[in-house]
Design brief:
heterotrimer; A mainly beta (203); B mainly alpha (152); C mainly beta (204); A: 203 residues; Immunoglobulin-like; 2 domains; four-stranded antiparallel sheet; B: 152 residues; mainly alpha; Growth Hormone, Chain: A; two-stranded antiparallel ribbon; secreted (chain B); IL-10/19/20/24/26 (chain B); signal (chain B); disulfide bond (chain B); Interleukin family protein (chain B)
Chain lengths: 203, 152, 204
């Protein structure tokens, strides 16, 4: 289709924001444009010769577009691009930098379940799953994506305010010989040594 | 952590400072990739992905790729940016020391080249020679994470 | 021209715990401030890049007579370093390190360690020494020196839990650093012993 005359300012800060490989394209509206701006989105697998339009993000007025299913193969890398339209004018296509789902995603903290006896606590950690692009999709733990994944566990004695750290590779930890009648707070973080990825600590 | 990963190729053990190499690359990734405007061509990942290489051929492909980067790529990546040049030097010298250890595996016949890896490497060289040398070198350097991801 | 300014002398590399520094003697010119520039050359540059040298920007036109090389000496190969003096447009010849430097030559000191008994729990606090370091911690119950246990700690952000102790028993701890990138370890730290809370008879 003939391209319109592209004099509209460009969308800004076009980038992927990814958590547990839920890969969402985000951008900011062109400078100085009020309401009414519409956008369309395309993406490309790096090294493959064509840009592909994303129909669900055609003529949208929001400033994000979920490209998780299009970028779910983390053995590939991707580019995405956004174009803005307003009153018959359009902007240039504005691209992301090259997106590598494996190294450019953020990881949520692990799920922590704690049970206790009067003198010990048992901690079970569960790594988050890779984002599922459809409910029927097979669940993949991030442990499978990052085989070197480890857990840093913090145990805080609320009475003495002393905090201990444990670094474990398996997902269970038992801390025996604790003080009866004392509150302990447990928090855990995921650490991937290489590529270097660290989650925050769980609440 | 120091992130030295021990790669096992048959009876051969090759320690590689993956975290150091990755840290060096991550520091210049955006700069280097922004110098490569060609989205539709890849040196390492298309049309044949490294991930399809049989495990028996992994050592040979790794050795060939490290030699490819040492012999052909790094020397054509000099930039006007001193910081980038220092990181490239750091990666290049790490590749050189790792390639030496891989070479020792080859001498112990633990690094056999099958038909598949020979074919795959031919494809990589063809992709490389399809571009002018500076563009090809810069694109290859920008794809270092593809190699590192595959190795890990 | 350049010949008026002598090259820096006494050029040497100080390397401890994977931190590497180049030092040299100052070039004295009465009433003037002499500056220095440092460059490095790895094995790759010598063998594959026509013997090229790479400037270290933090040590370009510096008045200091020391330069931190740690960020640049980041591969286990042989490096050469050189430094020259500069005064206005005048530059001295390069002064180059004699022989090569490989980071595997760094000297490793034992870690600073503090053993802690918290109730029945044996803990250790280690001073962080940077990303290159792991810590090999040995601990045993006093009197049972033949049953030494070991833990390798990769990151030491705070107090790290080693094990639980038998009530009232005394436990001893010592540690050494290990640098995977050069496959070398330091000597052990002095041994420290702490006593677990509680009455030993509780265990009978």
């Amino acid at each position: 289709s003939g391209e319109l005359y592209c004099s509209l300012p460009n969308p800004r800060n076009v980038r992927f924001e990814s958590i547990n490989m839920k890969n969402v394209l985000h951008w900011s509206a062109p400078e100085g444009t009020g309401d009414g701006v519409l956008y369309k989105v395309k993406y490309a697998v790096y090294g493959v010769g064509k840009w592909i339009r994303k129909p669900e993000c055609r003529n949208i007025n929001r400033t994000w577009c979920d490209l998780s299913s299009e970028t779910s193969d983390y053995e590939d890398q991707y580019y995405a691009s956004v174009k803005a339209f307003l009153n018959g004018a359009c902007s240039d296509w504005m691209e992301t930098t090259r997106f590598n789902p494996l190294t450019d995603t953020k990881i949520d903290p692990p799920m922590v379940s704690v049970s206790s006896t009067d003198r010990s606590i048992s901690i079970i950690l569960t790594a988050p799953e890779k984002w599922k692009t459809s409910p029927g999709e097979e669940s993949i733990s991030l442990l499978q994506v990052y085989p070197g994944l480890q857990y840093n566990v913090s145990v805080l004695n609320k009475k003495t305010k002393k905090r201990w750290f444990f670094s474990i590779s398996n997902n269970t930890l038992v801390v025996p010989w604790l003080e009866p009648g004392t509150a302990y707070c447990v928090s855990a973080q995921i650490h991937v040594p290489t590529p270097v990825l660290d989650s925050g600590f769980s609440k | 952590t120091a992130g030295v990963k021990i790669f096992h190729f048959g009876a051969c053990r090759v320690p590689m400072s993956m975290t150091e190499i990755r840290a060096g690359f991550t520091a210049i990734k955006a700069n280097i990739q922004s110098r490569d405007p060609i989205r539709t061509l890849s040196i390492l990942s298309h049309p044949h992905s490294l991930h399809k290489v049989k495990s028996s051929d992994r050592c040979c492909i790794t050795y060939q790729l490290f030699t490819f980067y040492v012999d052909k790529v790094f020397k054509h990546c000099r930039t006007e940016d001193s910081f980038v040049n220092r990181k490239i030097s750091s990666i290049a010298n790490s590749f050189l020391s790792t390639r030496r250890k891989l070479g020792q595996c080859r001498e112990q016949n633990n690094c056999m080249c099958g038909e598949e890896s020979t074919e795959k490497f031919k494809q990589i060289l063809a992709n490389y020679e399809g571009l002018n040398v500076t563009s090809a070198a810069m694109k290859s350097l920008g794809e270092l994470d593809i190699l590192l991801d595959w190795m890990e | 021209g350049d010949a008026l300014l002598p090259a820096p002398q006494s050029i040497s590399i100080l390397s401890t715990n994977m931190k590497h520094f180049l030092t040299w003697s100052p070039v004295i010119v009465q009433g003037a401030t002499v500056r220095y520039s440092v460059e490095f050359q790895g094995e790759y540059e010598r063998e594959y890049a026509n013997g090229s040298w790479i400037p270290i920007s933090e040590c370009s036109l510096t008045t200091a007579t020391i330069c931190n090389l740690t960020e640049d000496i980041s591969a286990s190969v042989a490096y050469k370093l050189r430094v020259r003096a500069e005064l206005g447009a005048t530059r001295s010849p390069w002064g180059t390190t004699k022989g090569f430097f490989n980071r595997a030559m760094t000297s490793l000191t034992p870690p600073q360690l503090r053993a802690v008994a918290d109730g029945h729990h044996l803990l250790v606090e280690l001073a962080d020494m940077g990303p290159s370091f792991q810590f090999r911690v040995l601990y045993w119950r006093k009197g049972q020196e033949s049953r030494v246990q070991q833990k390798v700690l990769k990151e030491v952000s705070s107090v790290v839990h080693l094990d639980t102790m038998e009530a009232g028993a005394e436990y001893c701890v010592k540690a050494q650093t290990h640098v995977q990138a050069i496959n070398r370890s330091s000597s052990f730290s002095p041994t420290q012993c702490v006593r677990a809370q509680g009455d030993p008879s509780m265990w009978l």
